[in-house]
Amino acid sequence: MNQIIHKLKQLNKVSLSDLDRVKLMNRTDEKFCLHIDDLPKVLEAVQNDYSVLAIEGETIFNYDNTYFDTVDNQMFLNHQNGKLNRHKIRLRKYVQTDDHFLEVKFKNNKGRTIKKRIEREGFESVFTHDELNFIGDSTNYSGIQLEPKISNYFHRFTLVDKEFTERITVDLFPGFKNQDKEITLNNLVIIEIKQSKAAKPAVIINVLKENKIRKQGFSKYCVGRALLEEKIKKNNFKPLLIKIGKEYHN
Predict the structure, then answer these.
(1) CB 11 within 8 Å of CB 54
(2) Which of 11, 46, 125, 182 could join 177 via S-S bond, C-beta 3.0 to 4.6 A?
(3) 117 within 8 A of 101, measured Cβ to Cβ
(4) CB atoms within 10 A of CB 45
């Protein structure tokens, strides 16, 4: 971790208001999974191409999520079965700032991710009347159908390219928890490259490929549930779960 912090100190810094130029609520995204020991050399290779978000001198921030689904797990099964035009619904807490949001993510059949969110007062898993309306307007689900399924937490830093066309999130130490079990993947790093258009490959993608790090689909909600629950359907996640067990879970 000290190596990662040292590498981040060497990057140029951008503010939260700077980052507003590249919100990318409608975007393409690609994910890559790597061992935490490989991250410093990736950061060193891109240090002249990206800046890092800094708030009051800090660059790494804690996130907490609560994911919701129907009683019969329609959202999880849509993803497991490879269905597009699918939703994820979560509460998100930015731990350092104590900001809270209700968020809806929609993956359409053209491979784009569209994200909507509204601010809320706290992190309790009870929806207000306005939030029920937001869910109903943004998805094909009723908020009263939904129940909390898992908690998810991680550390994150965010990179942005010089032209403010790419937003790169780098998640460390992802953890998952339900009422019965908790798992933290201390060796796993999840890099997500977000662009409004994928006409030009991001510089970091070339660096990752040079280091033999391949693109990897990764839903924190689905992977978390597949790791925590024995009986849930997880056929399509098994290759990733095997890789997690061998490489990232200690």
Answers:
(1) no
(2) 182
(3) yes
(4) 16
- The full 3-state SS of the chain, as one line of letters, equals CHHHHHHHHCCEEECHHHHHHHCCCEEEEEEEEEEHHHHHHHHHHCCCCEEEECECCECCEEEEEEEEEECCCHHHHHHHCCCCCEEEEEEEEECCCCEEEEEEEEECCCCCEEEEEEEECCCCCCCCHHHHHHHHHHCCCCHHHEEEEEEEEEEEEEEEECCCCEEEEEEEEEEEECCCCEEECCCEEEEEEEECCCCCCCHHHHHHHHCCCCECCCCHHHHHHHHHCCCCCCHHHHHHHHHHHHHHCC
The answer to which of 1-10, 180-189, 192-201 has the lowest mean pLDDT is 192-201
Here the tokens at position 243 are 């890789």
Residue 97: exposed, middle, or buried by beta-carbon count in 10 A (0-12, 13-18, 19+)?
Answer: exposed
CATH class for the domain made up of 2-248: mainly beta
Strand duo 12-14 + 50-53: pairing: parallel
pLDDT band at 29 (very low <50, low <70, confident <90, very high): confident
pLDDT tens figures, 87-120: 999 999 999 889 999 999 999 988 788 899 999 9
* Cβ-based neighbour number of residue 225 at 10 Å: 24
Residues 4 and 39 sit within 8 Å (Cβ to Cβ): yes
Please tell me the pTM assigned to this model.
0.93
Find, among 133, 150, 2, the residue nearest to 76 by Cα: 150
Contact 148, 66 (CB under 8 A): yes
